[in-house]
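dumping this here so i dont lose it again. seq + smiles for flavin mononucleotide
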Amino acid sequence: MKVAVRYYTRGGNTGKLAKAIAEAVGVEALTTDCPLEGDVDVLFLGSSVYAYGVDDEVKKFVAGIDVKVGKVVNFSTAALVKSTYKQVGKLLSAKGIAQAKEEYYCKGSFGPMHKGKPDEADLKAAADFAKRIVNG
Ligand SMILES: Cc1cc2nc3c(=O)[nH]c(=O)nc-3n(C[C@H](O)[C@H](O)[C@H](O)COP(=O)(O)O)c2cc1C
């Protein structure tokens, strides 16, 4: 099974999840400015919310996908909203790419809110989640 990890992070929170997920499934965590280089069965795609929306970089990355992707597994951090699942789902459906039902989300620190998040327990949960997706 071919697996890839792409993520966008401004403050590093989603980047921490990306690294934990990538390590758990034995691939490199790359940022969304690195296009996919070939077909993949599973793409773990990480994003966050900034002023209610995902960053344009994430939109650009999804719009630019020109290889076959079996399914995209969303992971995200945010301070207030639940996750970026729906927003990313809309981008994916515009491209005809399937989004997995499963996702990983946890709180991300934002100023005085959620200090230390994601923490070690979040990173372990993200790694376990990724292993379940890939290994069943
Ligand atoms: C400029 C800015 C705007 C934000 N707006 C929102 C928001 O509208 N809703 C929300 O839930 N979190 C919001 N957040 C919090 C981020 O989603 C949260 O800190 C997230 O973990 C950042 O991920 P990153 O460190 O990977 O960039 C905002 C953060 C920043 C810096």
